[in-house]
Amino acid sequence: MASDVPLIVIAAGGDGARIGGGKPARMLGGLRLIDHAVAWASRHGDAVALAVRPGEGDWGTGCPLLFDDHRGIGPISALASAFAHARAQDRDSVLMIGCDMPFLPADLAIRLSAALGERGAALPSSGGRVHPAAALWRPDVPALAAYMGGGGQSLWGFAETVGMIEVAWDADGADPFANINDAAALAAAEARMGGVDI
Fold first, then answer.
1. Which of 95, 93, 92, 3 is nearest to 49 (CA)?
2. Is 79 strand, coil or helix?
3. For position 100, which CATH number holds?
4. How far is the C-alpha of 34 from the C-alpha of 42, rounded, in Å?
5. pLDDT digits (tens, 9 = 90+) for 125-152
6. Is there a smaller number of Cβ atoms within 10 Å at the N or the C end of the chain?
7. What pLDDT score was predicted for residue 18?
8. Among the residues of 6-140, which ranges form H helices?
9. Average of pLDDT values for 34-51?
10. For residues 12 and 146, what is the distance between their CA atoms, to the nearest angstrom?
11. Which residues pair with residue 98 across a beta bridge?
12. How many CB atoms lie within 10 A of CB 52?
């Protein structure tokens, strides 16, 4: 019987060019970004895996590694790896998050799961922006293969293809879906780290 608890996959295979490379190992509040992501995922799910580029390790986390088969096309490649692993683990859904999102809300998985229904994806939004890099998906392997086979590379585009719902979070003040793409974003995240419950 398939589990209705989402598999959580952390996308950690980007090159991090804007931050000087090695994004998962960048330090924030005394921990690496990958450590923040694994800690959050471990609190909110019972199975966590890392989607990485071939040749990457697990940064000592002990998490299973899912190697991206499609290079140079962005996080859609990580989603393909996540879908395959979710099917192998008999999971009805997969929550994929970026390794660079250290302030994700504690109720992310619960609220997205409640909203998903029979749709293909539930995407969080805040401050008028939708965040497909922290979304819950039905692991529809054939649909994703067809989308990518037709040249599709956008998470947002795939979500529209399979049917999606947006779930809004209050973004008054600091955005819970802020991601760290450059040195300025890392410095801003460092400034707001105090008192954050991951």
1. 95
2. helix
3. 3.90.550.10
4. 12
5. 998 899 999 999 999 999 999 999 999 9
6. N
7. 66
8. 33-44, 76-88, 108-116
9. 95
10. 24
11. 11
12. 25
Which contiguous run of DSSP H or E holds residue 91?
Answer: none
Q: What is d(CA 20, CA 36) in angstroms, rounded to the nearest whole number?
A: 19
| Tally of structural domains, the chain | 1
Query: SS3 string of 122-177?
Result: EEEEECCEECCCEEEECCCHHHHHHHHHCCCCCHHHHHHHHCEEEEEECCCCCCCC
Q: What is the pLDDT of residue 13?
A: 78
- 136 lies in a domain? yes
With respect to residue 2, please indicate whether it lies within any of the assigned structural domains: no
**For residue 154, what are the domain limits?**
7-191
**Nearest 5 degrees, angle CA 14-CA 74-CA 84?**
95
> What's the pLDDT score for residue 92?
95
Residue 197 within a domain: no
Cβ count near 26 (within 10 Å): 19
Segment 18-34 shows an average pLDDT of: 85
**pLDDT number for residue 69:** 76
In a domain, 198, yes or no: no
* CA atoms 128, 73, 103, 22: torsion sign: negative
Each residue's pLDDT tens digit, 146-175: 999 999 999 999 999 999 999 999 877 789
